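S2.1 Query sequence (biotin synthase)
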Amino acid sequence: MLMIRSLRTQLGPWASRASFSTSAAAVEAERTIRDGYRNDWSKEEIKSIYDSPILDLVFHGAQVHRHVHKFREVQQCTLLSIKTGGCSEDCSYCPQSSRYDTGLKAQRLMNKVCCTLGMLEKQQALELKKAGLTAYNHNLDTSREHYPNIITTRTYDERLETLQYVREAGISVCSGGIIGLGEAEEDRVGLLHTLATLPNHPESVPINALVAVKGTPLQDQKPVEIWEMIRMIATARIVMPKAMVRLSAGRVKFSIPEQALCFLAGANSIFTGDKLLTTPNNDFDADQLMFKILGLTPKSPSFSEEIPVPESERCEEAVYVAG
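Output structure tokens follow.
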């Protein structure tokens, strides 16, 4: 306290009280560490965390992460597309939509995977559970308010209903979103608020940066900056402490130091392999080098079987393999 008072004295009129106030990230991280899981977050609470000074946000995201997880462990997952292109949906970011001319050639469904894809009815979810499905990915993509600007062929409530059926069937939920879709910061907060106030938090929360693909309506979107990813990751870590927060699509654009900040802020899962279905990703050797430089260790898989995923990170049909 003596040091702070002395510094205030030296700075004189330039030292506002706000400069030395405790950030919301600090307050809420401490409460998360003390009280654990909660799903009664207000949108204002999450916004105050998201708006905290970036260094505070990284530090306190790291505090929560180290309290709940083995902080050097990072889960490595891969995606295998079982049906490429020819999708009837109109997701504005997706090169696989048949409505856009992206130069992608549609392929038939692979013979090696048989699963129900896309929206689920209750009975379908139960049948998938009976067949041995352990996890299901179904991203919300963005906030409820911005969603109609991105997708019109399926509703936000239908997505939430699918997550409900998956959860009720006893299947783990993987659900996150994409930033860089032309949304406002309020929409990013809204997405996190929706996820964090589900009856149970998703076991996995992918945070994707838009990979703008020529031929899609979002081809000219401004690239996502690393600070935007860090804010999303650290806020997600504080409000959903037990979730695997996955640094997902768009990672290929970020350097090793930039990715290191994401891991420090609370990310503990990545997709590995030189291609994420139809878009580029960091290759295996590059990731191995990064793990060595940063002292990261692969997280032991919680399951070894292949897991059918209906939407992956961009609504494509895929198999998700955790390892």
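The first helix runs from residue 2 to 11. The first strand starts at residue 73 and ends at 83.
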